[in-house]
Write a structure and sequence with these properties.
Pfam family, one: Glucokinase
CATH class of the largest domain: Alpha Beta
CATH architecture of the largest domain: 3-Layer(aba) Sandwich
Shape: globular
Protein name: Glucokinase
Largest sheet: 6 strands, mixed
InterPro entries: ATPase_NBD, Bacterial_glucokinase, Glucokinase
Family: Belongs to the bacterial glucokinase family.
CATH topology of the largest domain: Hexokinase, domain 1
Number of domains: 2
Low-confidence stretches: 328-361
Bound molecules: adenosine-5'-triphosphate
Number of strands: 14
Mean pLDDT: 89
Keywords: Kinase, Transferase
Strand order of the largest sheet: 9-14-13-10-11-12
């Protein structure tokens, strides 16, 4: 069991993505991470070299008493494997007495109960219901997804690999883009292949193919920045529509009455674009359960490095036995979820009799 953090023996927290490795220190119990630095993953051979660099060059040679590592990829006890970069190994190689390894979106989910209103921006819907299941997702180098479930003993994070489900292709244009990309060599159509930084570039390429034009490749940051370029603007529109449908899929799968939260490296940088897009209409556009989705808030996490906050909360929970999200535990008895406003059109399930439908409600 590790000691509480102090300025002399801080806790190291990290959020390791396919592009960026973010580090910070927690120097007091319950404190938020400070001394934050962001290092490029591609410039280091592996996690131990990046940790060594951070502690030596950004943290005054600090020696960590414990660490919490949020990794963009599957984790198994002390072992990690980045999905979109080469780093892999065991956390024991860091030589730190107590190390927790968790998924990066699991850490982001754990940050949610700690975030203030100034760290969140609405994308539509009602106020998020407290103490109900929450979902978090975010396009970055990849597409992360996780849930956060209230229990009698506090919040329970639910990691997964939801970015690798099939892409939520809905409109004729989206089908045409995917068909063009498939013909151009895209091997499969995971959601992450379209809803990520590389996905934005792929969507723009696909849109150009559909329109019979050629466009020199551009990175995601350029596509988002070029407001007066028609192809870039339409690419962002397609991205936002797909994102709305994907967020709805996650909300429906988890029953996320506590809200769907969006993080990652792209959406927080273009909140007004997403707000002015088809995102929310696509989120609510479900033939059977539109009323259910209308009652679910969609919110962008605009906090600085929120996954570090979640990684610190997880360590506090594991070391000091605090609620996993570092916040007061939810009520012992879960409130009844709002009843979904089911409005089933007569022709939605032509094979089902009214009696059969009502028995499922
Ligand atoms: N200003 C910007 N606008 C839009 N996209 C951007 C911007 N800056 C960076 N990106 C894109 O964000 C992605 C990186 O996002 P993020 O910082 O979440 O990565 P990461 O945490 O390393 O990745 P992941 O956790 O998904 O593996 C890159 O694909 C990059 O092109």
């Amino acid at each position: 069991m590790s000691a509480a953090p102090s300025p002399e023996r801080p806790w190291l927290v990290a959020d390791i993505g396919g592009t960026n490795a973010r580090f910070g220190l927690v120097t007091r119990p319950g404190g938020r991470p400070g001394t934050v630095a962001v290092l490029p993953v591609a410039e280091f051979d592996g996690l131990p070299a990046a940790v060594e660099h951070y502690l030596t060059h950004h943290a005054g040679g600090a020696r960590a008493a414990a660490a919490s590592l949020a990794i963009a990829g599957p984790v198994n006890a002390d072992r990690y494997q980045l999905t979109n970069a080469s780093w892999a190994g065991s956390s024991t190689a860091l030589g730190i007495a107590h190390v927790e390894v968790l998924n990066d979106f699991e850490a982001l989910a754990l940050a949610l109960p700690q975030l203030g209103s100034g760290e969140l921006a609405s994308l539509g819907g009602p106020e998020p219901a407290p103490y109900m299941v929450k979902a978090v997702l975010g396009p970055g180098t990849g597409l992360g997804v996780a849930g956060l479930v209230p229990s009698r003993n506090g919040w329970v994070p639910v990691p997964g690999e939801g970015g690798h489900v099939s892409a939520p292709v809905v409109t004729d244009l989206e089908f045409e883009i995917v068909r063009a990309l498939r013909a151009d060599g895209m091997p499969s159509v995971d959601a992450e292949h379209l809803l990520s930084g590389p996905g934005l570039a792929r969507l723009r390429h696909g849109l150009a193919l559909v329109e019979g034009t050629r466009a020199a490749p551009l990175p995601a940051s350029e596509i988002v920045a070029r407001l007066d370029d028609s192809l870039c603007a339409r690419t962002v529109e397609v991205f936002c529509g797909l994102l709305g449908s994907f967020a709805a899929n996650v909300a429906l799968t988890l029953g996320a009455h506590g809200g769907v939260y969006l993080g990652g490296g792209i959406v927080p940088r273009m909140v007004s674009r997403v707000n002015g897009s088809d995102f929310r209409r696509r989120f609510e556009a479900n033939l059977v359960l539109s009323g259910y989705l209308t009652g679910i808030a969609t919110t962008v996490i605009v906090a600085e490095q929120p996954a570090l906050t979640g990684a610190a909360a997880w360590l506090a929970h594991r070391v000091a036995g605090l609620d996993a999200a570092g916040s007061p535990a939810p009520p012992r008895h879960r409130p009844t979820p709002p009843q979904p406003a089911l409005s089933v059109p007569e022709d939605a399930h032509p094979e089902a009799s009214p009696a059969a439908r009502s028995s499922t409600q």
